[in-house]
Specification:
Chain lengths: ~110, ~110
């Protein structure tokens, strides 16, 4: 079993839909990261959180430390949101352990 | 403030050659991380360095791979005697201190023929 598991692996949505991507981890963490990998391969850090909830534009990330679970939500999804979304658990020494990623496709 | 820079962006090597990948962190960042993404696989941690020190190299193969982050200049990931299985995208990231947001470079795509 991977230390960081994401679901779903693939997600197709229609423009405007509300999207949720889930991440569960089995290790002790100092923080949980959400990253976006564009079709061209570039990686952008979206959120780093250790408790509660963070919001940036149409993106919301939440974490439940007791349940070792985090979610990434996208409101009013748009085709430009199509990308791979990756959660990563930061353990001791700033080492990141990554989930396998969720491929999101938003159709117009 | 320029972002994390990596070069080359694409590198082709024949089996047995050496590959040198460079990473210049963001200005003011003294922590550098290297990750590898094999084809059709997820990202994997390789090594974490702070200026002149290797903090954690537990993700790096024991043979042929080495990394450094000298006092002056970029961080270097060096792969000796490359094999086809080394073909991958190598990303570096940097942060100003430990346990802060990591900013990723564009990656180096290594192809071993």
């Amino acid at each position: 079993k991977n230390e960081v598991e994401q679901s779903p692996q693939n997600l197709t949505a229609q423009e405007g839909e509300f999207i949720t991507i889930n991440c569960s981890y089995s290790v002790g963490i100092s923080a949980l990261h959400w990253l976006q990998q564009h079709p061209g391969g570039g990686i952008v850090s979206l959120f780093m959180l250790s408790s509660g909830k963070k919001k940036h534009g149409r993106l919301i990330a939440t974490i439940n430390i007791q349940e070792k679970h985090s979610s990434l939500h996208i409101t009013a999804s748009h085709p430009r949101d199509s990308a791979v979304y990756i959660c990563a658990a930061e353990t001791s020494g700033s080492r990141l352990t990554f989930g396998e990623g969720t491929q999101l496709t938003v159709n117009p | 403030n320029a972002g994390v820079m990596q070069n080359p962006r694409h590198l082709v090597r024949r089996r047995g050659q050496e590959a040198r990948l460079r990473c210049s962190p963001m200005k003011g960042h003294s922590h550098v991380y290297w990750y590898r993404q094999l084809p059709e696989e997820g990202l994997k941690f390789m090594v974490y360095l702070q200026k002149e020190n290797i903090i954690d190299e537990s993700g790096m193969p024991k043979e042929r791979f080495s990394a450094e982050f000298p006092k002056e200049g970029p961080s270097i990931l060096r792969i000796q005697q490359v094999v086809r299985g080394d073909s991958a995208a190598y990303f570096c990231a940097s942060s100003p201190t430990q346990q802060e947001t990591q900013y990723f470079g564009p990656g180096t795509r290594l192809l071993v023929l």
